[in-house]
Design brief:
It catalyses: 4 Fe(II)-[cytochrome c] + O2 + 8 H(+)(in) = 4 Fe(III)-[cytochrome c] + 2 H2O + 4 H(+)(out). With about 230 residues, the chain is α+β, with helices and mostly antiparallel strands. The protein folds into two domains: about 15-50 and about 60-90; about 95-230, Immunoglobulin-like. The protein is about 35% helix and about 25% strand. It contains four helices and ten strands; from the N terminus they run H-H-H-E-E-E-E-E-E-E-E-E-E-H. The protein has helices at about 15-45, 55, 60-90, 215-230; strands at about 95-100, 105-110, 115-120, 140-145, 150-155, 160-165, 170-175, 180-185, 190-195, 210-215. Helix 1 runs antiparallel to helix 3 (about 60-90). The chain is elongated. The model has no long low-confidence stretch (mean pLDDT about 90).
């Protein structure tokens, strides 16, 4: 989850998010190099080192500042396209969960199980237990098995919502009357927090998302218990 005064992304909990962090660092280094070069040119022009007419009209400079930006764009575009395809790839998911956005809570349907459905409401501040996080905890978590491809079908019941979990690198809009899909694989057990990322009304900031990744055996025990309760 996020921490106070945090500057970077949250720690990656899925392979796709790890790729996104690597791409972020890659693009940031290119930005630093470009900023340094531009700063040097500005300082050089102010101090009078680049005011010679032959320097300003140089054919070599024209070639450099045409080819160099093209090379930089290629260095950014190729890994970006690779990550886009990785994010859209969904092959043989082990579990499918349908997330439905409501004003203002989420409900989940485990489509591989007949009666495994539940609503997920934010826990009010006065009902929080010690160690729980304000505005982030829910009464029912979306539990998934770790190291297993999980497909999430996202839709909405009333207005636009967005199902987003930053640590997993997942963000998908929920549109009434339409199914959007995304996928993730959790690389380690843990509890990952997210929030609706589409302004959906007065209580938009009070519909958190909690994904709990557990070993497969624990997931099977949890699903059996939920089905018995249902």
């Amino acid at each position: 989850m996020a921490h106070p005064s945090q500057l970077g992304f949250q720690d990656a909990a899925s392979p796709v998010m790890e790729e996104m962090l690597h791409f972020h660092d890659h693009a940031l280094m290119i930005i630093f190099l470009i900023s340094t070069l531009v700063l040097y040119i500005i300082v050089a022009m102010v101090t009078g080192e680049l005011t010679d007419v032959y320097t300003n009209d140089s054919q070599g400079i024209e070639i450099v500042w045409t080819i160099l930006p093209a090379i930089i764009l290629i260095l950014i575009a190729l890994p970006s396209l690779r990550i886009l395809y990785l994010m859209d790839e969904i092959s043989d998911p082990h579990l499918t969960v349908k997330a439905i956005g409501h004003q203002w809570y989420w409900s989940y349907e485990y489509t591989d199980y007949e009666d495994l459905t539940f609503d997920s409401y934010m826990i009010p501040t006065q009902d929080l237990s010690p160690g729980q996080f304000r505005l982030l905890e829910t009464d029912h978590r979306m539990v998934v098995p770790m190291d297993s491809p999980v497909r999430v079908l996202v839709t909405a019941d009333d207005v636009l919502h967005s199902w987003a979990v930053p640590a997993l690198g997942v963000k998908m809009d929920g549109v009434p009357g339409r199914l959007n899909q995304t996928a993730f694989v959790t690389s380690r057990p843990g509890i990952y927090y997210g929030q609706c990322s589409e302004i959906c009304g007065a209580n938009h900031s009070f519909m958190p998302i909690v994904v709990e990744a557990v070993p497969l055996q624990h997931f099977e025990n949890w699903s059996s218990t939920m089905l018995e309760d249902a």
